[in-house]
């Protein structure tokens, strides 16, 4: 009996130990998983960030560009190595870009709090140029500027980071880097991918601002804004008392002082089913430094410039569903960038081509559009401009569309500014132009000029969010100078010091693009 009792107790102990081990192996009840939930408050693509009441949306695109006959991406070829039209002018320029944007929104008792950031990562083939030994007319060494020059990381894996937008919106306020309130909704693109159109404000890549927008209902809104002028809205306050360097030295040296006042912008906008109307106004302070190297030389007074713009978009016109017409017109007085925007080359052009003039090496076209110019002891003379741009877009079917677009701008110097540049007799004698380029061959000295642009693009979207584009742009510089000049040469683009004919110029560029939005 004792043996049987011992066996029973031992078996019970073993079973108890076994049950304890099995209990230890049982799974503990897990916490509830935080599933990502769709947020339908702000449209498709938004999701709740797990554990919060904030919604987030990720988006962007991947783009590949190839451009013909230019050294820049979609801004033209009328300056620098692109305008040289020689062996430093690229036959093609290539860019690959990834864009990432992050949009977050949170509902509060004061309204929606929104943050938005748009980042780009780009790799762009760049420009080769020549160096020049000090005091030498020999271009030595040749072709030493390495490409791509924008590869900040260096080497094969280098590239460039861009911060386009980074802003907060709350209770009607926009704070940070966003498109200027002055700009039309299509910024630089009424019906195109070409970056360099004149005829209106731009800031495609955003500008720092503090803005309040009041909504009046029925699609009517008013925006009041203070925005940074330094990055994108300074076209130049040029000191003609100090001759500049290079091809445009006749227009003096840049003479900016520190920033004092932001640009002040107001925009009234009406959004309706038929389209959009917008009226914009901007005030721009031109704040120059000194006539000479120190404070003792004195300085010109500040001059406030201004710009006014009207924009109109007409949708769903009778030519077809989705067809649009976008047009705008602008006038500026001492606020040139609101017409000839920051991505346009039309505010500082040196373009070369051939000539039939005996004794001339080549021809050159010059066009410069600052905000103001002044001479030592004198006051700022504001530059006036006007311009317009527009486009018509037709949808052939859901997969194909074609647009025709154009732009035009005129740059005008007042009589005091012309005298400082071209001399009292208007022949270059006694002016900064004659001091740099000579007067022997000049038959007309006048810094005014016009710029005309026209183009067409066709887009094919074979599947949703994948688009292939071909965009052809022609530009014409209509300058008012005539005769010949003795150009001092430019080592950077391989141009020799020689006699050049002053001549109107034409340029053509082609953009081919593939873009996948996501």
TrEMBL record:
Superkingdom of source: Bacteria
Sorted UniProt keywords: Cell outer membrane, Ion transport, Membrane, Porin, Signal, Transmembrane, Transmembrane beta strand, Transport
Record carries keyword Membrane: yes
Main location: membrane
Compartment(s) of residence: Cell outer membrane
Membrane topology: Multi-pass membrane protein
Pfam family, one: Porin_2
Signal peptide: 1-23
Domain notes: Consists of 16-stranded beta-barrel sheets, with large surface-exposed loops, that form a transmembrane pore at the center of each barrel. The pore is partially ocluded by a peptide loop that folds into the pore lumen.
Family that this chain belongs to: Belongs to the alphaproteobacteria porin family.
Function per UniProt: Forms passive diffusion pores that allow small molecular weight hydrophilic materials across the outer membrane.
Protein name: Porin
């Amino acid at each position: 009996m004792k043996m049987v009792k011992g066996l029973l107790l031992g078996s019970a102990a073993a079973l108890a130990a076994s049950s304890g081990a099995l209990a230890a192996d049982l799974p503990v009840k897990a916490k509830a998983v935080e599933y990502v939930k769709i947020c339908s408050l702000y449209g498709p693509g938004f999701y709740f960030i797990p554990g919060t009441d904030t919604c987030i949306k990720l988006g962007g695109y991947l783009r590949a560009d190839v451009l013909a006959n230019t050294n820049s991406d979609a801004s033209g070829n009328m300056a620098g190595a692109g305008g040289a039209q020689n062996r430093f002018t690229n036959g093609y320029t290539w860019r690959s870009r990834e864009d990432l944007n992050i949009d977050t929104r949170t509902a509060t008792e004061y309204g929606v709090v929104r943050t938005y950031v748009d980042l780009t990562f780009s790799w762009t083939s760049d420009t080769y140029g020549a160096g020049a030994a000090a005091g030498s007319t020999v271009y030595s060494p040749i072709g030493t500027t390495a490409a791509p020059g924008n590869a900040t990381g260096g080497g094969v894996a280098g590239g460039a980071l861009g911060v386009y937008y980074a802003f907060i919106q709350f209770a009607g306020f926009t704070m940070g880097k966003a498109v200027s309130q002055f700009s039309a909704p299509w910024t630089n693109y009424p019906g195109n991918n070409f970056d360099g159109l004149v005829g209106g404000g731009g800031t495609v890549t955003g500008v720092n601002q503090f803005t309040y927008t009041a909504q009046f209902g029925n699609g009517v809104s008013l925006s009041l804004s203070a925005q940074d002028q330094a990055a994108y809205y300074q076209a130049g306050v040029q000191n003609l008392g100090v001759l500049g360097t290079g091809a445009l030295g006749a227009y003096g040296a840049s003479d900016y002082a520190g920033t004092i006042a932001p640009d002040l912008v107001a925009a009234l906008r009406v959004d309706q089913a038929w389209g959009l109307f917008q009226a914009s106004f901007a005030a721009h302070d031109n704040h120059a430094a000194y006539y000479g190297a120190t404070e003792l030389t004195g300085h010109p007074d500040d001059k406030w410039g201004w710009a006014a713009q009207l924009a109109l978009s007409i949708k769903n016109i009778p030519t077809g569903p989705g067809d649009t017409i976008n047009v705008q017109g602008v006038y500026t007085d001492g606020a040139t960038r609101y017409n000839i925007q920051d991505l346009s080359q039309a505010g500082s052009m040196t373009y070369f081509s051939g000539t039939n003039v005996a004794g001339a090496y080549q021809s050159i076209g010059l066009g410069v559009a600052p905000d103001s110019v002044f001479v030592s002891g004198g006051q700022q003379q504001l530059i006036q401009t006007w311009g317009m741009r527009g486009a018509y877009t037709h949808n052939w079917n859901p997969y194909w569309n074609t647009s025709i677009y154009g732009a035009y701008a005129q740059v005008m110097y007042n009589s005091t500014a012309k005298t400082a540049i071209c001399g009292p007799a208007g022949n270059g004698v006694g002016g900064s132009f004659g001091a740099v380029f000579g007067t022997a061959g000049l038959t007309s000295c006048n810094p005014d000029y016009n710029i005309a642009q026209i183009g067409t693009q066709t887009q094919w979207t074979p599947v949703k969010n994948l688009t292939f584009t071909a965009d052809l742009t022609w530009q014409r510089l209509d300058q008012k100078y005539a005769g010949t000049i003795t150009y001092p040469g430019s080592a950077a683009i391989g141009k020799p010091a020689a006699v050049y004919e002053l001549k109107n110029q034409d340029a053509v560029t082609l953009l081919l693009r593939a873009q996948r939005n996501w």
